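Budget justification note: compute hours in this period were largely spent on complex prediction jobs such as the one shown. Inputs:
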Amino acid sequence: MKKIATVTCCSPGAPPLRAKEFEDLSSRFKALSDPTRLAIVNRLASVGDTCVCEFNSLGLSQPTISHHLRILREAGLIEVAHKRKTWVFYRLVPEAVEALAFALGGAPQPELVLATAEGTVAR
Amino acid sequence: MKKIATVTCCSPGAPPLRAKEFEDLSSRFKALSDPTRLAIVNRLASVGDTCVCEFNSLGLSQPTISHHLRILREAGLIEVAHKRKTWVFYRLVPEAVEALAFALGGAPQPELVLATAEGTVAR
DNA sequence: TCCTTTCATCGAAGGATGTCGATGCAACGC
DNA sequence: GCGTTGCATCGACATCCTTCGATGAAAGGA
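Corresponding output:
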């Protein structure tokens, strides 16, 4: 679990950063650099908390799914929501995704600025 | 050079995406998953157009720098700004970075929503 | 207690990635 | 034309990453 970056990096006007910040940021981008892991994150973002067993629909072996969940978990992007019986449910960590969007120059949160107006977000 | 994604992926409320979109997005995140490449992008974002020769301050060999520039170029994140004599100057492609921020749930552009209000960006 | 279910971890194999020296190549200046 | 400078490409090597089967471990149910 790493601390969440709060600096812009890659957007015009960003301040020059230090080597350590490049390490931290790149390690989190690396967590999103695999299509399987993006599919997992997208599932958690769109559907909500999801049981690990649901991810076998991705067509990969169970250890492989577990491996990707571990990488996303260690990057701080997801976390265990709760456990019921032998099931484990994961959930998204919105602040972590938000921090990455901010590093890329995106506004912190549309809702904080203009309520949830779908019409204004899409162009 | 790939088309720039315009969909949200990893933010709460994002729609379920298709396999091809995970491939496209992850390949661009992969371009940002290396600290050297983040340093290059940060340089272009903060200082502006930069000659390739400036990047030898990163302490890597010239072929290695050229390799990373190629990856960023093929991801559409940077491009050749102009050439003078034997120098090659690279520039950032803000729309590409913006599209990635949007995929992570960041607002398309702060200016488009609420002008540049520093007070609201920092928390 | 014993078995089943679910998930995490381990170890190994194959492919991808970062790095370098050597080489190629285009733009100058002489 | 000839040498120099700056950058891209090539080939090679070490390392990392993705994937799998096998195994371990915890929670229940019979």
